[in-house]
Please model this.
Amino acid sequence: AAAATTTEVSRMMNNSNFESHNSPGGGCDPVVTSKYTTPTECQAACDATPTCDMWTYVPAHLRPSPPTPWCCLKQCAVADGVRQCPDPNTEAGLFSGAKFPANYSNTCVGPTCFDFAVDWSSGGPATTLPTFNFSVRKIEAIFYPPDGKTYAYVDIVNFTDVYYPDSYSSEVGVYSSADGRTGWVYHGIVIQRGASGGWDGGGIASPGAAVADDGTVLVGYAAENAPSGGINRGIGVATAPHPLGPFTKSPIEVASPTGVCGGSGRCDDVIMQSRPGGEIHLYHSVKGGAPPPGDGIRHRMTTDHGKTWSDSELVLSSTLQPGTNPAETIAGKYVPGALGGKGAMVLILDGGPGDALHVYLSKTSGDMVTFVAAAQPTLTTHPPANGMKMNSWANSQIGFIPGASDQIVGVAYSMYTGVPVYSQEKKSMNMGYTHTVWNFTVPPH
Model:
């Protein structure tokens, strides 16, 4: 296998040249490519060409015979299933760039490879969910076709919560955005904890959400009867005619705190996804010593807006996917660009090597219950995790932001805000956190 590149690459590099790896029919042909008269036009040509991985632009004054510019579209080689991408050379006056700098040296090739590129310049205050004496932990977003807006359901963790920064006694709030990236507006709590003493009286957290074919919104959540956390946390679902509510809780749990979530275990971390045919799929984790067949990720499906559900089925576990440790469902969405462009359900879990996040994909396109581990052992694309500092990744939470037709338009990460918060239970200073959204691209494999 070829070694990864040793030189850092970017979208636009001055005085650089990828000397080799010209694409068939697209490399340094003055008849075809001389119409691209600036480096930016050459970059755009590479972006629009699926097989292009990198490009080099030769200005006309460096080509006196004939005096026309060259736009050279280039492609990494693949040998024995390993991608081989060259380092750029230094050459005065030339311009070069990589289409996906974050993934340029990634040598994974094949349908079970999954990673994504993030434009880190695209996030900031305008793409951040505002907070008001609370923090935002887990996030799950939906695109709502009737009004074309994006709605994000989140854990609202009040600064005054005794157990802050943990979300044991939180409730579910909702934000909206006209484009899924900017102008996020907070609308308040939409799913409250239940009455004291009830199975959901301690707190509600870890929401998942999906839209039924008639516009009904379903929000799944984890709930517990004690505000301090503990075992036997169950999974409930609430429905509403509109993303802002009013929501009505189902009287029957999707996962009972005395059933699959019983024993010494607990359920948590809901992910939901709409699919054609009126299907809504719900995934949740079972952990801490659950009844047989034990810990992992379970799945149920409804086709009647949550009135009835399929039998609960274990779909991810160390037994089903040997050599892995599927722990908690951090994020998930159907990603059209996954599985070699065929589309797949993608679940991001913690419990990977070194406690990192790792990825599982549908084994085949359209299959929502049979998963394989991604070829890469960990998901490495994330902001810096520099401890409790402003603009540092706060608690390993991420979320996909969907747009129309299942397209993913962004990815959100929980980030420390710099606002000091005193943790009563820990008797120490902590910090506020919320989500910022960045532009998201799935490169081809």
About this structure: The helical segments are 30-33, 39-47. The chain is about 5% helix and 40% strand. Residues 39-47 form the longest helix (9 residues). The two ends are 17 Å apart (CA to CA).
